[in-house]
Amino acid sequence: MPSLSPNIIGLLPEYILTITGVLIMLAEPCIKPSSSRKPLGWLAILGTIAAGVASGYQTLFASDHPLRAFSNTIQVDTFSIFFHLLIAAVVLVTLLGSMDYFEGNASHAGEYFALVLFGATGMMLMTCSVELLMVFIGLEISSISTYIMAGMRKGQGTASEASIKYFLLGSFATAFFLYGIALAFGATGSTSIAAIAAGLAATKTPLLALMALAMIIIGLGFKVSAAPFHVWTPDVYQGAPAPVVGLMSTAPKAAAFAVLLRITFSGFPGMQHRWSVLMWVLAALSMTVGNLGALLQRDVKRMLAYSSIAHAGYLLVAFTAFPQEGIAAACFYTATYAAMNVGAFAVITQVSGFNESTRSIEDYTGLALKRPVISAVFAFFLLSLIGIPFTGGFFGKFYVFSAAIGAGHVWLAVIGLFNSGVACFYYLRLLAAIYSRKQAAAHDVQPRSVSVPAAIGLTLAALATLILGILPGNVLEMAQYAGTSTMIENARQQCAAHPDNCQLQVKVDSH
């Protein structure tokens, strides 16, 4: 038995992030306006590392059985720990890459570091919550932080537009999610995910439960930028600061997908034959709309915004697979996408700077002649986003499409492969510009030096992308264990609710 209270261990990473964020807010007014805010950034980095260590510490108490806290509203298991570590890693790379971003341009860098930690707190809370109202609280904490960070480039019209648009449309989507929670309570009498799964078998209003799930999917579909809920993505990505876009395109998506996996596979398993059809349509639509939209873009951040819509579609393919394989494939693809996308935006942060002088594809022409190392790193991330072998993107797509084919969704995998071919055009177009000789009349931008923290962040993202492509065993095994443990826990809950019809039909890996 743990010596500490389960309520302390269950939310230990969130406590650390919250305390660190509060300390940054208290320390920021004590620093002269003309002084550097880098010490606050280093404090945020230390807090993030400590939160990651705390997530690893939780494995000591959640290896055999989930650790429950706060009246069973919080559940720490392999699934939640996987996403805790992933979110902590993304936040760490983001902080390292943005240490010098606000230097000399804004006095509110301290607020940025605190908001990053508060946002990460909400994301982690979402992944370990098994009660929909707790999920909603985590979602709001994460969303409010990202709404503010989207407008951090004060004085820029596009930044204000991005923040306001993100806030208005995000609030609208949150209303759908909250209304779905209310309908789920009306159909099953509970907002606990386990109780909802048990109540579906006896509910007299299955249509109401189906409407509840549809509303929840709409709300979370906005957060993951799935089509047709993607309309905010291009404008927000274009106007928000590059490091903020790198964060919001990965960590909040990972948290939202974690919630969606829990709700669909654990809360509504009996309706999989219905919601998997909806996921099939959303996946095909997101892949197609995202890639076709990216073909028409010349702004690099806007192009990557449409790319993120397409990758949300690739990840939704995993929801059409069998539960155990689908959860594992979704977890692994989330990790690979986070590594290569946060790395790509870290490169954009270093190249364009606070004023974002390098925006269009033409502005990247000849970049390799002046900055060969960072260009090579950027090229590696772009190749991974395409899905070239020996990168994390290739194995992520392979695993997701294999899971879909195993469940009989061959045509969905074909659509995914076709869209991957379409994506080659706009990624390679940017790559060709980077390695082209710059014309005399082209806009010339003086190269910016890469700081040591940013170099460390880029190295971590590149190594993660490479390791996930050539040695994915450890992460893949953890993803598979997360899927297996989730299904075992679902079966246990079903046994507790219906002891007369208890069948643990879960394939448990020998590991």
Write structural notes for this entry.
With 511 residues, the chain is an all-alpha fold. The protein has a two-stranded antiparallel ribbon with strand order 1-2. It has helices at residues 6-10, 12-27, 38-58, 78-97, 109-128, 132-150, 157-188, 193-200, 206-223, 233-239, 242-248, 251-267, 272-295, 300-316, 323-352, 367-370, 372-386, 392-406, 410-434, 452-470, 473-497, and strands at residues 67-69, 74-76. The two termini are 24 Å apart.
Topology:
Elements: H1 6-10, H2 12-27, H3 38-58, E1 67-69, E2 74-76, H4 78-97, H5 109-128, H6 132-150, H7 157-188, H8 193-200, H9 206-223, H10 233-239, H11 242-248, H12 251-267, H13 272-295, H14 300-316, H15 323-352, H16 367-370, H17 372-386, H18 392-406, H19 410-434, H20 452-470, H21 473-497
Antiparallel strand pairs: 1-2
Helix pairs in contact: 2-3, 2-5, 3-4, 3-5, 4-5, 4-11, 4-12, 4-15, 4-20, 4-21, 5-6, 5-12, 6-7, 7-8, 7-9, 7-10, 8-12, 8-21, 9-12, 10-14, 11-15, 12-15, 13-14, 13-19, 14-15, 14-19, 15-17, 15-18, 15-20, 15-21, 17-19, 18-19, 18-20
Order of helices and strands: HHHEEHHHHHHHHHHHHHHHHHH
What structural class should be given to the helix and strand makeup? mainly alpha
Rg: 22 Å
Main sheet strand line-up: 1-2
Give a quick rundown of the structure.
The chain has 511 residues and is mainly α. 71% of the residues lie in helices and 1% in strands.
Question: Which structural traits does this protein have?
Answer:
single chain, 511 residues, mainly alpha, two-stranded antiparallel ribbon, 21 helices, 2 strands, 71% helix, disordered C terminus
